[in-house]
Amino acid sequence: MVRYTNNSKRWEFDKEAAQNFLSGANDHCLRQGASEDKNFDAKPTSSKTNSSSCLCIILLAVYNAEKYIKEQLDSLFNQTFQEFHLLIRDNQSTDQTLSIIQEFSLLYPGRITLVHSPIHTGPMENFAALIDLAGSDYIFFSDADDVWLPQKIEKSLLKIRELEDQHGQHTPCLVHTDLKVVNQDLETIHGSFWKYAGLNALEGRAKLISQLAQNSVTGNTICANRSLIEMSRPIPKESIMHDWWLGIVASAFGVVGRIEEPMILYRQHGANAIGAKKSTLWNFSIERRRLFRTRLKLQAQCFLARYEEILEPDQRETVNKWIEFMGGSLFAKSHLMWKFGFYKTRGSIFLSLADLFI
To answer: Which of 101, 193, 201, 276 holds its CA 20 to 30 A away from the CA of 178?
Structure first.
């Protein structure tokens, strides 16, 4: 638990404030029972937001983000839709990130909650902890180094409500958008990240195998409804990334909507946690696939263990065959590859050849 003190001009641990906040956390934006999580401490940077006005929450994971976070925060608070609460989890930053957050908390009182990680973790763990706190109807995910275009929230909400009208609010729904790839100065590298990376962006009742084999949703574009978040969490440590896991769950049990218009300036600056990878032969090399082989298998095994009883028979078979494919012989993998389509859409021949021999 941390608080900002005017005397020391820094964030300090505040046990009493932590107890008061978490014991009375009936805010619609923050999930009740958050105090049961032993992995973090939390405190609002100012008075809590009005629950009646908090339709959605934006989860922002930060670490030493002083260079770009101001531009991102400006873009959030300049959205055409403003009924959101911003929940930030700092991952042991050592620069001026917290000071910048404090400046914005004073400019937008009651709109920002800061969560302080007691240990330094990876980005997946950081977002997983944030997901455990989120309690609003719709959840967005934000990186600290991007810039959101003004209608990003508005258009995502319109799309996800359209999906809920068609399939019901209890259906897990995920909406994702294209991005414009830009350099550190926000100059355009490519107008479409989907085309740049060779992604076949998920839509509709997406095939489960498509998301098992390749993450086709980009985390910083996601809008998820309450049903998807509740069905997906806790995000397991075996998942490769939180967005990949959300995409798998949505593909298996829900519906995916996509907005083909880029809604984010996806900044590339050499220090991205993930970053935009151009679709090339190298990206489908044997070496690169070998690095992911074990993690892909563990992620699928974890998914099967958690959801096996509620998967449809054909889905259960697909996941089991995918796990088998991860460790099969050359002959077995050849058979499974062409029967179940275990390859990416773009560059599939290179991936297929690589997977057969590793």
So the answer is: 101
